[in-house]
Write a structure and sequence with these properties.
Layout (H helix, E strand, L loop, with lengths): L17 H8 L7 H13 L3 H21 L4 E5 L9 H8 L4 E6 L2 H11 L5 E5 L5 H5 L2 H6 L7 E5 L11 H11 L5 E6 L9 H13 L9 H5 L5 E3 L27 E7 L1
Parallel strand pairs: 1-2, 1-4, 2-3, 4-5
Antiparallel strand pairs: 5-7, 6-7
């Protein structure tokens, strides 16, 4: 397999990557055949996966605009993935010029592309780190340079927590991050769930099995389990809801049925 010029030498291009599969679902070009093959396998069971990802991105943009309109000018996006049109820094600055953004991902391709996109941007940076090790993020020079933890921060965990297994204590990681952030900070979150998927559970389980096979288990949590991530936050209306129902800009009934898979919400720290 020929290695594209944009692929860092350190990565194994024969192993699928969650962030590159996500890029493929969104119509991006920074993915390999091994990623596309895994995506197509998952779509055999759940053909609406691209619609879910598009709804996910649309929610993220609405939530970022909301946070910026509420006066937040600092954004920490963990599990940010490969840059696509309408990134957090673009959306935030349209509503709050001068907003500062730090992206975090552990995929070398995502980090390399973020560095390229952000080259010369003094108010945005990227950290190569993992959500499961919050202190590495909080103590990084990039975060220390751009984010004042004494002021409110919008923390984005969009389509990332469902890749953190219970054994890795995602609730504990989130608590560490919450404790480090100032009052008035916001948590912007989406999470996969069997609830809302317009398919029999056994069909959806087939797609989940594809992620297990590539050693990136997809943890489908219940609404109650997802709500636990918001402990210490006051939910912003309309609460924890399917993505198209969170402050929609168009009629939710016009959305594809798959867009209602999983949950999205925004919380504000007291």
């Amino acid at each position: 397999m020929e290695r594209p010029a944009w692929a860092p030498r350190s990565i194994d291009i024969s192993v699928p990557s969650v962030s590159r599969i996500y890029d493929y679902y969104l119509g991006g070009s920074h993915n390999f055949e091994v990623d596309r093959e895994a995506a197509r396998k998952a779509m055999e069971f759940m053909p609406g996966l691209p619609k879910i990802m598009q709804a996910n991105r649309a929610f993220m943009r609405r939530a970022v605009r909301f946070a910026a309109q509420e006066g937040l000018t600092q954004f920490l996006d963990i599990g940010s993935g490969i840059p696509t049109f309408g990134n957090v820094h673009e959306v935030a600055r349209a509503a709050a010029p001068g907003a500062r953004v730090v992206y975090v991902d552990h995929d070398p391709v995502a980090v390399a592309h973020s560095q390229a996109v952000l080259s010369g941007d003094e108010d945005a940076d990227v950290i190569a780190a993992d959500l499961r090790k919050p202190q590495e993020i909080l103590e990084s020079p990039q975060l220390e340079r751009l984010i004042d933890l004494n002021r409110p921060v919008a923390l984005l965990l969009v389509a990332i927590l469902h890749f953190v297994e219970d054994v890795d204590d995602p609730y504990g990681a989130l608590a560490e991050l919450r404790e480090a952030l100032a009052p008035g900070s916001m948590l912007i979150l989406t999470h996969a769930s069997y609830e809302g998927i317009p398919l029999p559970a056994e069909r959806a389980e087939g797609a989940v099995g594809v992620y297990k096979d590539i050693r990136n288990p997809l943890i489908m949590r219940s609404r109650d389990e997802i709500a636990r991530f918001f402990e210490g936050y006051e939910m912003v209306e309309p609460g924890l809801v399917p993505m198209p129902h969170w402050r929609p800009e168009s009629a939710p009934e016009d959305e594809d049925p798959f867009a209602f898979s999983g949950f999205a919400g925004v919380g504000r720290a007291a």
